[in-house]
Amino acid sequence: MRRVILIPALVLLTTSAACASLGALGQLIQPPRFAEAPDRRPEVRLDPPSASRPLGGAVIRLYTEVTNPNPFGLTLQTLTGSLMLDGNHAADADFPLGLPLDAGGRAVVPLDLAISFSDLPALMEVVRRAARDEPVDYRLDGTIGVDAGRLGAPVFGPMILLRGELGR
């Protein structure tokens, strides 16, 4: 009878220890790193009026090189955040990516961020600088979610994902 009690207790103890170590492994996952893509400059294009932006707007395409610093593959699932132009909020970002990255892998990803012309009063100085062909600083702040299989699906951030200049 004593063996009958000991076997389930040992199974429970072993399973608990395995789950605890898996949780610790999940904390060892490093977030993917973002950088300006080499040889790819940000692009700005005008968008005509639409139902979602009655005054029209602009789309800023940022090319980012995403690197997986981990010794195992993972999938970059989501990116949410805010685009700042010269310190002013310009656009929100919400991308369901599903981008698989091998261990140490890299991929160049275009991110399109839409700015509504109805937000121009807050961005008037940015527009003036762009019209004078002066560089405009940008920063993409955000939160990213990854799927690392059995190691978990952590969310990282908020953090600065990308920064650079438009118009140079």
What would your notes on this structure say?
The chain has 168 residues and is an alpha+beta fold. It folds into 2 domains: 1-29; 31-166, Immunoglobulin-like, CATH 2.60.40.1820. Helix content is 22%, strand content 48%. The protein has 2 helices and 8 strands, in the order αββββββαββ. Strands 1, 2, 3 and 6 form a 4-stranded antiparallel sheet that branches. Strands 5-4-7-8 form a 4-stranded antiparallel sheet. A hairpin with a 2-residue loop joins strand 4 (74-85) and strand 5 (88-101). The radius of gyration is 22 Å and the shape is elongated. Residues 2-23 have low confidence and may be disordered.
**Oligomeric state of this protein:** single chain
CATH topology (level 3) name of the largest domain:
Immunoglobulin-like
Could you tell me the strand content as a percent range? Answer: over 45%
The largest sheet, given as strand count, sense and whether it forms a barrel, is: 4 strands, antiparallel
| Rg from alpha-carbon coordinates | 22 Å
> Structural class given helices, strands, pairing?
alpha+beta
